[in-house]
């Protein structure tokens, strides 16, 4: 990478990593306050990964002020040069792929193979957006008057405040941070406190890529302080855009807050993602997709399979095959070759316990030798490791769910898959749309007519055919509708409209005032002419 111009060179290198993680504002660590959080390894809850000093609302406001102070200089860096910084970050991520993946596995319990894939997603995102630095195109537009030019430009929105969950602790933040920086914005990032070590590792890579002080600020805070800080920062006019990935409930509050300031946030929220399995589907392939999307990352993805909606003629065989596959899958220590490891944090274990309480007497349970937490008294055959070490749960398949069931209607965020049956494709689409989410949906079929009928009528922002509900690529728009989001999209060129504003300019060089719609040359056709 060529030498960085003095106008935006870093001062003194990246902030030094301390034994207690503290927020980074303007390139400097802030002092630790009285409140703290202890991030532990969910696969070995007795092991501490990081002690985190929690910031307050005023600290988030201070971070937004630091970002605002740095934004003019960063905006003035030519976009192709900003693209070089993004490219450097991608190379650093690739060089540190295994180390970063190990941090992800240790702190959030994601199986190492999946963690490697998550880190690769950052590298892919950087590879895509490095080139977009040379393609932040505007347009020249013909005028209706002579000696006049019309032009359009993309301008950065300013300060972007990004709030992310910890189930994808480094990939999802990169979906916001990389294009936001590429477009000339500065960023204040509030990661999940239970994924603070992952956030710290990612910040260090960004800092070593040559991003200047204040361009990326990291604030470790809990939910209430973050919301209050965001409220204050918006009132002070410091934030140009908010990006949030998390629950539908919190996203609704953030959307309402931003709306009061005439802002439209990027909201990437929860999902209750349906998989329709038709009578002509390849059942073994559908089962493979259901197993991965239902139980990968212990069902803690926004794109995890919620309900498999199976044609009545294939229902019994699908359940039999899925039950067989789930029982045969290895669950346990995420450093090994397992389908899934522990739940991310005790708060999610507690939430999943409540979800298991939704299983009713009309439901039939499959998938494992038990339900609930895996223990010596509630064992699972073939478990890899010592279940007493971590937050491990049995995979659960619940047959017979339908409208009116909490299991059918709500996101579960854990290793549970519901199964419903249908007779007609109209009924399948109605069931797919009934919960009101609209993130991801899939259909397994060999009939193209069913594919396009489903695509046209399902409410999801993303549709997969003969593939699982989970999976994203860096150059494809990602996002949902309804309870899954407000229509914003991450990834690909589509996200550029989130992090830039269009500015139009007209340049009249005629030497006289030409008034639009008034001083326009007219064509005089003979409309009475007939052959």
UniProtKB/TrEMBL annotation:
Source species, domain of life: Bacteria
Residue ranges annotated for the Aldehyde dehydrogenase domain, each copy included: 35-504
Active site: 268
Keyword Oxidoreductase belongs to the record: yes
Xref: Pfam families: Aldedh (PF00171)
Family named by the database record: Belongs to the aldehyde dehydrogenase family.
Name of the protein in question: Aldehyde dehydrogenase family protein
Source species of the chain: Actinomadura litoris
């Amino acid at each position: 990478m060529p030498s960085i111009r003095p106008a935006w060179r870093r001062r003194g290198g990246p902030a030094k990593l301390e034994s207690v993680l503290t927020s980074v504002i303007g390139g400097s660590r802030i002092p630790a306050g009285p409140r703290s959080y202890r991030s532990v390894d969910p696969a070995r809850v007795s092991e501490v990964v990081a002690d985190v000093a929690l910031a307050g609302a005023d600290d988030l406001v201070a971070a937004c002020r630091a970002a605002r102070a740095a934004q003019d200089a960063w905006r003035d860096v030519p976009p192709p040069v900003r693209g070089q910084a993004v490219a450097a970050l991608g190379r650093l991520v690739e060089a540190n792929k295994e180390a970063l993946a190990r941090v992800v596995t240790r702190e959030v319990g994601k199986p190492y193979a999946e963690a490697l894939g998550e880190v690769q997603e950052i590298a892919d995102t950087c590879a895509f957006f490095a080139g977009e630095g040379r393609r932040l195109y505007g347009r020249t537009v013909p005028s209706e008057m002579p000696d006049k030019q019309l032009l359009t430009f993309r301008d950065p929105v300013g300060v972007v405040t990004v709030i992310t969950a910890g189930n994808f602790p480094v990939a999802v933040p990169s979906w916001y941070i990389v294009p936001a920086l590429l477009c000339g914005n500065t960023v204040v990032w509030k990661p999940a406190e239970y994924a603070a070590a992952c956030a710290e590792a990612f910040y260090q890579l960004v800092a070593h890529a040559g991003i200047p002080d204040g361009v990326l600020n990291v604030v470790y805070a809990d939910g209430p302080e973050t919301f209050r800080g965001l409220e204050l920062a918006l009132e002070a006019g410091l934030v140009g855009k908010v990006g949030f990935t998390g629950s539908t409930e919190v996203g609704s509050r953030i959307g309402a807050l931003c709306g009061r300031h005439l802002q439209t946030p990027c909201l990437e929220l929860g999902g209750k993602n349906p998989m329709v399995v038709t009578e002509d589907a390849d059942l073994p392939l559908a089962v493979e997709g259901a197993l991965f999307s239902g139980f990968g990352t212990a069902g803690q993805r926004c794109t995890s399979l919620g309900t498999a909606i199976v044609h009545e003629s294939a229902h019994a065989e699908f359940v039999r095959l899925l039950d067989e596959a789930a029982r045969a899958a290895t669950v346990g220590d995420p450093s090994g070759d397992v389908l899934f490891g522990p739940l991310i944090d005790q708060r999610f274990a507690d939430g999943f316990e409540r979800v298991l309480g939704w299983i009713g007497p009309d439901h039939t349970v499959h998938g494992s030798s038990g339900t609930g937490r895996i223990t010596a008294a509630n064992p699972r055959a073939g478990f890899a490791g010592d279940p007493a070490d971590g937050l491990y749960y049995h995979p659960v398949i619940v047959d017979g769910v339908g409208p009116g069931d909490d299991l059918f209607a709500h996101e579960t965020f854990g290793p549970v898959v519901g199964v419903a049956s249908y007779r007609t494709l109209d009924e399948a689409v109605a069931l797919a749309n009934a919960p009101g989410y609209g993130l991801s949906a899939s259909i397994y079929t060999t009939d193209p007519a069913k594919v396009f009928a489903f695509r046209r009528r399902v409410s999801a922002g993303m549709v997969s055919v003969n593939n699982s509900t989970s999976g994203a690529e860096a150059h494809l728009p990602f996002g949902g509708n309804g309870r899954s989001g407000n229509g914003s999209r991450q990834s690909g060129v589509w996200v550029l409209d989130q992090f830039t504003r269009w500015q139009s300019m007209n340049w009249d060089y005629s030497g006289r005032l030409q008034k639009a719609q008034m001083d326009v040359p007219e064509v005089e056709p003979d409309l009475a002419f007939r052959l």
